[in-house]
Amino acid sequence: MPLHMTKIAYSAESPASLKAWLESHADEALLTTRYLPKRHEEMTGGSLYWIFEHALIGRSPLRGFAQREDGRWHIRLSPLLIPVHTQPKRAHQGWRYLEEDEAPADLGSDEFAGDVLPPRLIGELAKLGLV
Asked: What residues does 6 pair with on adjacent strands?
């Protein structure tokens, strides 16, 4: 089972803007990080799960890691956002690991993904045990 990672969609104004940014990169999207994840070999076949307004909203498949000339690392992603069942997730700096059994399932093609509750509201409902 692959290991995944989570990261805040810090410059995204909405899930739609995150999707547009990812899709604007023809071959692959690159994020920069200072350090190569220690468990990077376990991430083969994994995904980066995006956090927006304190909830996991989608994922982008990981293609690997590449070192830059300045010593930093690129996180190489497929340029697409796959919607997942929204799940509350606390904000954090940088990236964190996410085990396969903790990762939310993808939304199926037959599932309604239009008008969904805002991620922040889902987080509040989850705290109350209502979702």
From this structure: 49, 96
